[in-house]
Amino acid sequence: MICEIVSVGTELLLGDVTDTNASFLSRALRELGICVYHRQTCGDNPARMREQLSLALSRSDLVIVSGGLGPTRDDITRDVAAELFSMPLVHNEEVAEQIRGYFVRRGIPMKENNLRQAQVPVGAEILQNEWGTAPGLWLRREGKGMILLPGVPSEMKAIFNHRVKERLASESGVRFANRILHFYGISESAVDEVLGDLMARENPTVAPYAGNGEVEVHVTAFGESAETAERFCRETEKSILDRLGEYYYGNGDTSPEQEVVKAFSERGLTLAAAESCTGGLVAQRLTRVSGASEVIGLGVVSYSEEMKKKILGVSADTLANGGVYSKACAMEMARGIRSLAGSDLGIGITGIAGPSGGTKEDPVGTVYIALASEKKEEEYRFLFGHVKSSREEIRFRAATQALILALRHFSDEE
Amino acid sequence: MICEIVSVGTELLLGDVTDTNASFLSRALRELGICVYHRQTCGDNPARMREQLSLALSRSDLVIVSGGLGPTRDDITRDVAAELFSMPLVHNEEVAEQIRGYFVRRGIPMKENNLRQAQVPVGAEILQNEWGTAPGLWLRREGKGMILLPGVPSEMKAIFNHRVKERLASESGVRFANRILHFYGISESAVDEVLGDLMARENPTVAPYAGNGEVEVHVTAFGESAETAERFCRETEKSILDRLGEYYYGNGDTSPEQEVVKAFSERGLTLAAAESCTGGLVAQRLTRVSGASEVIGLGVVSYSEEMKKKILGVSADTLANGGVYSKACAMEMARGIRSLAGSDLGIGITGIAGPSGGTKEDPVGTVYIALASEKKEEEYRFLFGHVKSSREEIRFRAATQALILALRHFSDEE
């Protein structure tokens, strides 16, 4: 099955909004084994939309359109699609009731024009929208199909995931299973080399994606039954973890901070972080995770030497001898914050995020990280600088590194 | 002039990459007064690319293509465009020298296939690329034009801004000037109402964009000379600030944290923040700005009551009576961190970011913010909750609010 994606909205053509719907749908279809050869962006102009949707129908089996289902006159996707499929639009009282109910539940008065969203092309299938007002619509004729989805990303994704995905999988006759595996501490090119033979295979597909200093490996397996697909996927996953297990930290929709909060909560452990160059990024990323309050008791951002001394108890000697950029300073910060917070683990981070402040010995990107707990102390020097690294990248990588080290700190005690 | 944007790359159709190039170009062209009616995304397949580029040329005066200029066999944009314009590709020694120079400067060996990027269609104009290897190319024939740009966003933007923008402005015969004004504390719909008459005008265009609890107002003026455009722009800016001045906080490419660092540095002032529900976001956003170390001496993330008492000196009475979610607690945090850090301003933030923890009196989204300096103390209760607000949105808005309050705290002393 060949599918085409059309994103509708003048705001896209004006550059006010970046089209994340198209990339979501592209990835979702790829994971269903459905090919996408073309994507178009289309404004709220009826004549041009008619031309663009006709073109899409002429070269693709299925066209997924997002946007233009709103309540205003600008929203014309429903009308144009109904016309192309020769299905007159009629008022659908069931949909109207759902729309009224949506406003009642939220205690907001409904405007009359919202009932435009209750217009349905005769013969089209309604894809209920529990997450907003405009339902999705699935039009079919002579072996061609067109699915209309709202442009609001959260509604578009919800309707796709709950009303469309499974059925497309079943119509494309392919069953699939997939995994997203997260690795840290290895480069994409090294993953490429280690997994080269698996990546060369057609099924399951194995694809690494690098970003933010991490590598995700996506595994997608297709089979005649869900069980076969799942078995292919599991076998490949095992083979990947056999080779890269030491760099693996989690799977699915996760992040180092989510894994830390999960692992520490499960074991009833707490941590505290004293941050200099990362400026509170470790604390901020951890507290983004709901439930973090059980895990992180205290975070301190101490840029100045004085605060490092006064609050964390870093000794004047250490600052005078090794300086603020040293393993010793990071370790005293880690011990200091641990004792102040009374936590199981203390983390200390000090370094140079740039753009200025680098020296020959400690260029921009040099970061010292120390971890202290009752039974173990670890200290490291990292260089996160690259030719193109920005201050923000260096900070992000240093925070990720600290989180990964925290995650592994207690793992050998299990 | 009608312009069309084509984004090239199978990685786009697979959803591995979100197409930010298309939105950058859309916005840039809009600001030049050039209309974009169509955008297409195109994979690395020669037959389909030929079709899509022909279609674009048939309906638009100028086609801007980004991507597919790399050194590998997949990169075919140059070849397809040369064929469409009947301009044979020939090796250009000057470009080859620049590419070699690029690698020499970085101390990286050049691969032979990089010289594919020195192939230039006969008669095409070369748009030098100082930021990477592949130069941009500008092909013209019979009143139609096609500009090829690399797909790497930083290179695409740099070549567009430095080699293309001015000339498109001059070819479109229009001079323009623009401003981006930032407002906080007013909703987009209120801005809409207040600026309705200005927004209805054709020149200058006035467009508000909301996001992250802020509203940006973009002003773009066109004129026959740069001076006229600039004058239109300035007049409209003045009229906007006359009406919305109390909500204004900065212009251009800025943010509340950048304005705080700028304003505090200029006056030699320092601040310190004690954060509970925002989990270090204020510190983290401030320290993202280079030069923040002069301004922020200390940040503390104190989730637990114990740490609020032990480190910030919040009294047991306050915690027992008003509780941790109260103006009194926020104020004691603000005073405590100010005294601990010895800073000019102390900020205290406590509240409920959710998703759980809300009560009838203090629903999710309730945030108490206090500011303390020698001459002034302020304390507030905010409700950042909306039907759809996530934990992250509430945290972000609370941090923004605190930064804006900090920015205004000393302003009446000027």
Protein architecture, described:
- 2 copies of one chain form a homodimer.
- Chain A has 414 residues and is α/β, with parallel strands linked by helices.
- Chain A has 15 helices and 17 strands.
- A 6-stranded mixed beta sheet of chain A has the order 2-1-3-8-7-6, with helices on both faces. In chain A, strands 14-13-15-16-17 form a 5-stranded mixed beta sheet. Chain A has a 4-stranded antiparallel beta sheet with strand order 10-11-9-12.
- In chain A, helix 2 runs parallel beside helix 6, helix 3 packs across helix 4 and helix 10 packs parallel to helix 15.
- The longest helix of chain A has 19 residues.
- The radius of gyration of chain A is 27 Å and the shape is elongated.
- The mean pLDDT of chain A is 91.
- At the A-B interface, helix 2, strand 2, helix 3, helix 11 and strand 14 of A face helix 2, strand 2, helix 3, helix 11 and strand 14 of B.
